[in-house]
Amino acid sequence: MSAKQTPPAVIRSLIARLLGPTDVGRSIAGDLDEEFRERAIRDPRTARRWYRREALGVAVRSRRIARGRAAAMAPKGDPIMQVLWHDLRGAVRALVKQPRFTVVAAATLAVGIAAVTSIFSVVNGVLIKPLPYPHAERLVNVRSTAPGLGYPEFPQSPDLYLYFREHSDSFEDLAIYQARRANLTEMETPIVVDISAASPSFFSTLSATFAQGRPFTVEEDLPKATPVAVVSHRFWMRHRGGRAGFVGESIRIDGVSRQVVGIAPAWLDARDTPDVWIPTGFDPQNPTIGQFGWNVIGRLEPGISPETAEARLDALVKQAMGQSGTSSIYQAFINDGKYRPIVLDMKQDIVGDVRQPLWILLGTVGMVLLIACANVANLFLIRAEGRQREIAVRVALGGRRTTLVRQLLSEALVLSAVGTALGVLLSASALPAILALAPTSIPRLDQVRLDVNVVLFAIAAAAISAIVFGLVPA
Fold first, then answer.
1. Which of 122, 130, 172 is nearest to 348 (CA)?
2. Are 131 and 139 in contact (CB under 8 A)?
3. Other CB atoms closer than 10 Å to residue 49's CB: what's the count?
4. pLDDT at site 260
5. Does the pLDDT value for residue 90 go beyond 70?
6. Which SS3 state, helix, strand or coil, does residue 218 take?
7. What are the distances in angstroms from CA 390 to CA 51, 300, 380, 397, 403?
8. Rounded to two decimals, what is the model's pTM?
9. Which of 4, 109, 252, 393 is most buried per CB count within 10 Å?
10. Average pLDDT over residues 369-395
């Protein structure tokens, strides 16, 4: 073959490189060479131009094909997520193939999840959730104790409250109130409502801001001031239908017409909270002495602990008793009774003695969940016994132990997710009945609900459960 009948060496080597040492590549290169030789016999120059054009077309097409193959073989997205998604799909297929096992295991797990979720919702609402006040961790109750007279704990007296308010530097704010019952007599039939005689600082101590109106002022708290009242959001909706313009109107409490100066925020509506607040009517110059029937709340200054505030109030009591004008009987009660004020964290004081029983109940129900996990683990073990042949074949075909363990854990996670969804739904259905049967002595039951924290707890419990009953057969 003459040189003119030989394909250009540079282009030929490029074609060989692009097509690779495969049968298809050699076949395409051979076809180009054969066609070139036939054309070169007639017109070598035209043959070379044809060869260059065809070679360029082959190069472009092979480049596109190579890019398409690379794109098809390249992993799409995160490789870890791809593996996880593959395992989860395999787990779903495996569980669907055994519906009886899946239903029994999911139902067993759902019962355990529902039980522990329901009790945790109570623990969360009563013990864990903070009080519904801004910066509630600084709120305290100020009470009294007189162990010398056998009184371990009792309320405060207005005279000591006024003295504490004037001289104490431990509190950002201090307030006094007393719960009462009264008649709403503006209708044909009187309605009994819960009211509270409170100092003007009551709402500022709780950091309550009014959307409508205002709290009553110090001047309105004096004995001969114009009667005023603050109503709850609940009262406004129930007795006035949420009608605008209610502030400024009057309501009649026990026959006394009182002008409504404000509507308290809705978050103050809770169980055992009053419908109406009225001023105390104290005379600061001549306070009631020794009437220990009033509740005192305070907001501590930042950095002040209840113990520090209690020690400072104790010193103020001694200072107040040392002033002239204090009756000898009152001093005898203070001294002989070994009286001292006590400052209690408000949340701990409200929760009281139910803390330990609730935690014990949660631990007991947690054992129920562990029993459910043990039963599901037994079901998984029985199922694994029946899958020995399948697993042996997969190992013989090159399956790694880590892959098999991962697959079994994926099945446990899928089953756990199904059981969690069923358990949360069951808990949501059972929670109203549980609250209805709960003793009224348990505080803050109005705060118990299936919120985000409870659902996250259920998910965490389910994840731990999946590891427990998934690793055993794995």
1. 130
2. yes
3. 11
4. 95
5. yes
6. coil
7. 57, 68, 15, 11, 14
8. 0.70
9. 109
10. 76
Per-residue three-class SS string for 423-466? HHHHHHHHHHHHHHHCCCCCCCHHHCCCCHHHHHHHHHHHHHHH
337-351: per-residue pLDDT in tens?
Answer: 899 999 999 999 988
Q: What is the CA radius of gyration of the chain?
A: 41
Instruction: For residue 147, give every residue at least 6 positions away whose Cβ sits within 8 Å of its Cβ, in sequence order, or none.
Output: 337, 338
Look-up: residue for tokens 């999946």?
466
- Surface-to-core class of residue 276, CB atoms within 10 Å of its CB (0-12 exposed, 13-18 middle, 19+ buried): buried
Whose CA is closest to 317, among 298, 339, 301, 300?
339
Distances in Å between the alpha carbon of 223 and those of 202, 281, 347?
A: 18, 4, 33
CA distance 169 to 142: 15
Whether 463 shows a pLDDT value over 90: the answer reads no
What's the rounded Cα separation, in Å, for the pair 35 and 57?
A: 15
Query: Coil, helix or strand for 168?
Result: coil
pLDDT tens, residue by residue, 263-308: 999 988 887 889 999 999 888 888 888 889 999 999 999 999 999 9
- Residue 229 pLDDT > 90: yes
208 CB-contact burial (10 Å; exposed 0-12 / middle 13-18 / buried 19+): middle
* Most confident by average pLDDT, 234-243, 293-302, 401-410: 293-302
